[in-house]
Amino acid sequence: MIKFTIITLFQEALEPYLKTSMMWKATEKGLAEFNFVNLRDFGLGPHKSVDDTPYGGGDGMLLRCEPVFNAIESVKAKDPTAKVILPTPAGEIWNQEMARAMSRGQLGTLFSRDGVAPARRHGRSAPHTSVVTSGSPREEHSQLPCDMHYIILCPHYEGYDERILSIVDYKISLGKYVLTGGELPALIIIDSVVRLIPGVLGGETSAEIESFSDGDNIEYPQYTKPYDFRGMKVPDVLLSGNHGEVDKWREEHSGHVL
Ligand code: ADE
Question: What CATH topology corresponds to 217-256?
């Protein structure tokens, strides 16, 4: 069982997706569990405020430490081994290798104690520096593919107080663009991980053979009926019944990530 606890102000934006299709099936089969914590419940004062203006001035509001720490600690009180993920454009760029590692409970093997993936540490653009812990024994030595609990903290507003990073294990970026919050990244991370858990996809081999699963391979082109759609015909080799030739064609037409 892989467990996700999502700390968010916008549960209603996440729930429909997680209650649909494969994510729903994963929960129905007992392979995944999605829980929500409403950050507002940990807000301060009569207005349950979770943000404030930045010291030093500047536009926008920042997520405050207290609601975030209290929300995370409320989850960790029940499961101290849970790992905290922060979606942020300052994080490691998410990729299939990370999704695969996370689906096996081994994400920590790709990150160092400062929350930076090894390849990135030697690269040009180091992400924010701060003390970030990672890699509990449970995670790194887990042979059970799904025996993990991840807390995903979804920031909103213009940013977050930097001290929040001290309670984060992994900072993950979905790409070099800025979104309004962590909800979409949370869904993308969850979807790409959960679909890799054995038993989630219908055909047991679908996740294995498809795009990216073998290093940087891109899946070969596929076709279904009709044979001729508006003059665009299915390559004849795929109708030949010759499995050797079909495999050869597919091999030749598989691509690589740029
Ligand atoms: N939050 C805002 N932009 C983001 C991005 N590109 N990746 C992850 N989290 C984000």
Answer: Trp Operon Repressor; Chain A (1.10.1270)
